[in-house]
Amino acid sequence: MKHYFILLMLLGFSSPLMASDFVTGIDDFNPNITKAEQLTIDDAITTYYQHPDIAKINTVLDIMNGNLLEKKTAWSPLVGFLTIVFSQHKHQVFDWISRNDYNLYAQDVIITALMHAKLFETAAVFAQGVGWTPERVEDLRKQKDTTDLKHQAIILPGHIDALWGAFFASGDKIYVEEILNVLFMTKLPVSDAVQAPAANVLLENKKLAVGTLTLYCKTHPLVKQVIEKRLKKEKDSEMRAVLQGLLSDKI
Description:
Order of helices and strands: HHHHHHHHHHHHHH
Radius of gyration: 18 Å
Shape: globular
Number of helices: 14
């Protein structure tokens, strides 16, 4: 359980995030980055599955290693995004993670993504290389019960952000379906894992799910398909109204 909460904390400090926050985070903390470069990062992440090109990953890692991650809302979607990319391109991972002298923020994102990608030994070697103590590295090696993102309980807003990152990297609708399921939750799966009242956290999760689903169903046909499929099956009139609102942007 201790290992679960380590990863929970790494993912759990996010607040509601829109695609533009990738750009805003770069702009806020690194004025030397041009608008063209900002748009490149935004496109590389949010539409990666539509035009996958691993050459973009170096750009993402370079910007991630700048000041972007000082805006902590950027951590969780990058964990989700890199989890998928690392899983799909295991042969390339060492080259990617050894090409920079990563700052502490980037190190945490990379290690968490490697663990979710089930690249446990790679995560341990990377952690050792960036100066983790032998005790911390050994503890990391024991965390082989790390939950796959597809089956991770959504407890905090950061978990929703991570699922969006995974979707952007893969185009797998299961991540969108999991986010949509948040709207049907009546309680948190693990309420004792949060400091704020569970009802308040659940409300924040639902607000984030509604906001991002409404936004992305306009720009990602796959997201719209997931909502439309759920609407066809839904019998409850109140939830049908919610789903119709996502599609009509009236919520």
